[in-house]
Structures are given as C-alpha cells and as structure tokens.
Fold this sequence. Notes:
Layout: H1 2-16, H2 21-44, H3 51-64, E1 71-73, H4 75-84, E2 88-91, E3 94-99, E4 102-108, H5 113-117, E5 124-128, E6 131-132, H6 138-145, E7 152-158, E8 166-171, E9 173-176, E10 180-185, E11 189-194, H7 201-214, E12 220-224, H8 233-242, E13 248-254, E14 261-264, E15 275-280, H9 287-297, E16 302-305, E17 313-319, E18 325-334, E19 350-351, H10 367-377
Parallel strand pairs: 11-12, 12-15, 15-16, 16-19
Antiparallel strand pairs: 1-18, 2-9, 3-4, 4-5, 5-6, 5-7, 7-8, 10-11, 13-14, 13-18, 17-18
Helix pairs in contact: 1-2, 7-8, 8-9
Amino acid sequence: xxxxxxxxxxxxxxxxxxxxxxxxxxxxxxxxxxxxxxxxxxxxxxxxxxxxxxxxxxxxxxxxxxxxxxxxxxxxxxxxxxxxxxxxxxxxxxxxxxxxxxxxxxxxxxxxxxxxxxxxxxxxxxxxxxxxxxxxxxxxxxxxxxxxxxxxxxxxxxxxxxxxxxxxxxxxxxxxxxxxxxxxxxxxxxxxxxxxxxxxxxxxxxxxxxxxxxxxxxxxxxxxxxxxxxxxxxxxxxxxxxxxxxxxxxxxxxxxxxxxxxxxxxxxxxxxxxxxxxxxxxxxxxxxxxxxxxxxxxxxxxxxxxxxxxxxxxxxxxxxxxxxxxxxxxxxxxxxxxxxxxxxxxxxxxxxxxxxxxxxxxxxxxxxxxxxxxxxxx
Length: 378
C-alpha cells in the first residue's frame, strides 16, 4: 500500500513543479490528506480492498475531473482499444462519454446491435444488467458492457422526452465498421453516408464522388454525418478540402503555443460547385462537427437536422510505463468563424427533428433525409 501511495504522491509532486509557492503548502496538505484517506480505507473499510485497483481508480478520477473525455486506460483496456481501432471487435457498437457521473451515448454505430435495438444519441445509461452505473468510472462502465460475442446484455436508459426509463436487451456481436456507404437517390442525388473518420475514409469518399461525377444525371449531393462520433482530424481536414476552393478549415488552440495550428483548403472543388446538403444530429461529434462547421461557415453547404454533440476537443493517447495509457485533452477545435465547438456544437441552417420513436436512418421513417431530398428537388 505504501509503495502505491508513493506513486500517487509522485504524480502530485509533478504538478507542484508548475505551481507558484503560494499553492505549494495547500497541495502538500492535500497529499497528506489523500494518504490518510487511503490508510483509513485499507484499515477500516468493511471489505478487503485491492490497493492496485484503488490506485487505478484514483488516477482515473483525477483525469475525469478534467473533462468527460480524459481517462486512464489499464494495460488490458489499452490493449482492447488498440484491437478495436483495427475496425473489427466484439461489443454493442456505441460511442460513449461520461456526463455528471452517468454514461452518455454519443452515438450508436450504423448496423450494430445497439443501433438495431433502438439506442439513440443522447441516451443516458443508468443500469447495465441491473448494476447501477451512477458512481462508476467510464472505464468501469465500459468494462461492464464488454463480454463474449453472442452473450446478452440489458441496458436501462433515460431519454429526453420520455418519463419512464427504457430497457433494451442486446446480444453482443463482432463489430465491423464500414465508414463509407454511397448510393444514388432519385436518380440525380449523390448520397454519401460517413459513419466514422478512419484512415481510409477520405480515399473512399473521393472514389465515390469521382464515380458520381462521371454520372451526368447527378446534380447535387447529400453528405450524411448523423451518428458519426468522429475520428481522425486529418481525415476531417481532407474531406472538408474536397468541397472547398480556399479558406480556413479548422484551427486548434493548445496550452503549448507551438501546437497552435491552422489548416487551409487547397484550390479545387471535386464536386465542381454542386449543391451540398450536410445532415447532422446530436450523434454528430468531433470530426463530423469540423466538416459541418467548415462547410457552413464558408456557405458551401446547407446544414439540415439537429444541433450536433459539441465535442470540440483533441484527445491524445499517451502510453505509460506500465503498458497502459491515458487519454488526455490537449487542444480545442475552432471553426473558421472563430467559434469553439466545445459544449456548443454546430447549429443546422434548417432544424428538422426526428419525427417518430421508430426513426431509423435511411429508411421510410427518416424524415430528415426525406426533407433534404425534397429540398434539393424543390
């Protein structure tokens, strides 16, 4: 226990180097208090406590006190995350964050168990298999949702506009993420649905647009970014650049001046100036908001749907000596207008809410897509 306590003290001492003398006395008092609390837990708590797990929880609590997106990953969790980014993994198919001590769904991924069951962006997960989520860390909640492929899980959620909690029974599956889907709608609209920003997204979109441009009947485009939780910043910049001739796309501001950056569009719009509608909703986050915000600020596209999530920050995965890692917010995104996306999101030019509880993207119940089609053909 004393060895682990020493590690925590060293972490806090790291912060002391960046504090003025006036704060040092208070911080030392807090370190003493922290050590006293750990000793009391170890000596008097009703059940035996694993000191190593207590340290992990303390580190995770420190990071989550910064913002909902910073977190500690144990070596096991970090290894699982690396497996997931390969594009094939077992699970439910949802992107989540922590808000006020409750797990919040950023967005369900298309054609996954969570999406098919009816989980929606903005849902608050309050129980996982009858285990209360309140008070647990995001890592602990995610671990509860993990399980063998083919095994069942019950999620209890709270949803805006619903008085009673909703229960969903879901079977875990292998999740295979296909980031780009494309189709020709009404014979004259190039429809592109982007579900995440991974390493090949921009190449796939460029290929689809080139195919559409060869079809002389295609007169306009719909870029569907609904329930897209984001991904790689580099891909958001490349995809925005496809539709712009010039101008700023996005900038990042960091605590380190050397890391403050701006990205600009290169000359050349691969759609040759055709009308574009971008569909967004509450599940559109991060890189999705960069694309939608850049095209809106440059008046290059009409934004239709609902206000986006408001995740305008950059997270860096920093490996640790124990083979775990921390996910740490290192910068914030700013749109060409100078506005921050954080906690504000991108507002649509035309607000269209989901019409029914049975709403599913790109089905007969998709009133947002139907509106965009009518607008382009109107």
